[in-house]
Amino acid sequence: MAKGLVERGIEVVVIAPVGAQPIDGVGWIEVEPARWDFTHGNWLSLSYAFARALKTLDADIIHFTDAREAFAYHGKIPAVGTLHDDYFARHRWWPWYYRRDYVDWIQRWAYYSIVTLLERKAFRKLTALTANSNATAQTISKRYHIAIDKITTIYLGLDLTPQPVDEELERERLENPKLLFVGGNMQRKGLPLVLRALKQLLPSFPNLRLQILGKNQNLGKMQHLAQKLEIQEHVDFLGWVPPDRVNDYFRRAAVFVMPSLMEGFGLVFLEAMAAGLPVIGGNVGGTRELIEDGVNGMLVKPGNVENISFQVDQMLREKVVRNRIIQKGFDTLKRYNHQTTIHHTLEFYKAAVA
Question: What CATH number belongs to 2-157+337-353?
Answer without folding.
Answer: 3.40.50.2000
